[in-house]
Amino acid sequence: MSDPLLTDWSLEGTARRRDSYYAASQAKFVPFAEPIVFRKGRGQYLWDNEGRKYTDLLGMNVCISVGHSHPRVVAAATAQAQDLTHCTTMFHHPTPAHLAEELAARMPKGHDWVVHFTNSGAEAIDLAMTMARSYSGNLDLLALRTAYHGPTAAAQSVTGISGWRHPGMPGNVAFVAEPNQYRGIFGAGTDPYLDEIDRVIATATTGHLAGILIESVQGYGGIIEMPPGYLAGAADRVRAAGGLYIADEVQSGFGRTGAQFWGFEAGGVVPDIVVMAKGLGNGFPIGAVVAKRQVAAPMAEKFLFHTYGANPTSCAAARAVLAVIDEEGLQANAARVGAALLARLKDLQERHAVIGDVRGAGLMLAIEMVSDRATKTPDAKATAAIFEACRAQGLILSKSGPHQSVLRMVPPLCLSPADVDAVAEGLDAALAQAG
Ligand code: PMP
User: What are the start-end ranges of the H helices in 22-85?
Assistant: First the structure.
């Protein structure tokens, strides 16, 4: 009898099985015109089924923080899986308990932080929304346009990009304009966007808030940084209306922005709830809500149980991730290598008219394509063509933004200075060919 686990690695076989057996909802999201099968990853690199090498500037959707298949992370998860793969959270296990202690220690000092583990970012967002509503006694939440917070119905309800919003979302969410300094509806600056929060509270809510959700740097929205004073100003306004400040660090956390470990730290704000996932597990599924103790306390009235939440295998991986970030100096590397890459992107902007904007910090960077720099008309067609040409240059990026006109770069934090040269040269060639 043949091995029942035999894997057919061919592109044709994989495509045929996907086409035959994946639901439309799962099959739809494919980035390239021609599909690609990845077989191996190491550090910041990927190899396809035919052995072609790529630099992974997408980090498998920002999940790969410390490098693909990092030996330390894989060893920690393997050791745990061999001993006890799963221990449901109703029983005591030291690995998630250690991880909770270690995450609390990464939070701003002077507050009493507690942790609830989930399996994904969206579950953590759901929980944060429920926590804020339970604590405040209010229902209304604010979210930002062009935000992305996840696929569950509740996370969709605070996602501000229509292409990710499906029928049946819960309500009680009002959106404020994102303070996009390049193409925001109020132009550049902070105050008009804070005035907008006041206006939306006064007109589109009951006036009594549960909270606001903000990605400290918007990810799928196209690497939208929050201008100086915005996070603190938003927190003040929402707290004055009875609500909490919820920081979504799913993409911007774990040292990715370089200058700080959490994106919100750049904004001088201490959140009431912090949501994290992705890079915490370096590919092992895990999410977490870290909240001030008093904010989490009212949830003790009822049960809330994520079957795999606090799974020790993922938690063992996450403990190793935190250790590796420190031991390998990856936050400092993100700052240093990110600054070098940003400078190269700015140089490309000077030579390629299609690049309307270059932005980001650390290893959370983007270029935005426009058909006309004066009108800033988003150019999705050029973006798609450059994206495909990058693949031929061995670069995997991400098409992002509400107009699909942004190429987002969120690589593993171990990207090296030599990679920066290769990325800049590959992008230059792709822009010359397709821009
Ligand atoms: N928040 C942000 C900022 C995200 O980018 C994502 C996922 N892309 C989520 C939440 C949801 O995380 P998950 O896909 O793990 O549910």
Answer: 24-27, 59-62, 71-84
Ligand 1 centroid to residue 347 C-alpha, Å: 31
> pLDDT digits over 402-419, tens only?
999 999 999 999 999 999
**CA 120 to centroid of ligand 1, rounded, Å:** 7
Q: What is the pLDDT of residue 378?
A: 98
Long-range contacts of 377-383 (CB under 8 A, 24+ apart): 378/403, 378/404, 378/405, 379/354, 379/405, 380/404, 380/405, 382/354, 382/434, 382/435, 383/407
- Give the C-alpha distances (Å, rounded to integers) separating 153 from 61, 89, 136, 359: 20, 24, 21, 31
Whether 342 is in the pocket of ligand 1, judged by its Cβ within 6 Å, is: no
The residue whose CA has the least distance to atom 1 of ligand 1 is 149
What pLDDT, in 10s, does the model give residues 100-131? 999 999 999 999 999 999 999 999 999 999 99
DSSP state of 367: E
Confirm or reject: Cβ of 122 under 6 Å from ligand 1.
Answer: yes
| Whole-number pLDDT of residue 192 | 98
8 A C-beta contact, residue 145 and residue 178:
yes
Rounded to whole angstroms, how far apart are CA atoms 387 and 154? 32
Q: All domains of the chain, ordered by start, with CATH?
A: 11-66+330-434 (3.90.1150.10), 73-327 (3.40.640.10)
Is ligand 1 within 6 A of the CB of residue 277? Answer: yes
- Which stretches of 106-210 are DSSP H helices? 121-136, 153-157, 191-204
Q: Which atom of ligand 1 is nearest to the CA of 122?
A: 16
156 within ligand 1 shell (Cβ under 6 A) = no
372 CA distance to ligand 1 middle (Å) = 32
Looking at residue 334, what is its pLDDT? 98
Determine the distance separating the centroid of ligand 1 and the alpha carbon of 8, expressed in angstroms. Answer: 30
User: What is the C-alpha to C-alpha distance for residues 400 and 397, in angstroms, rounded to an integer?
Assistant: 9
Quick check: CB of 263 below 6 Å from ligand 1?
no
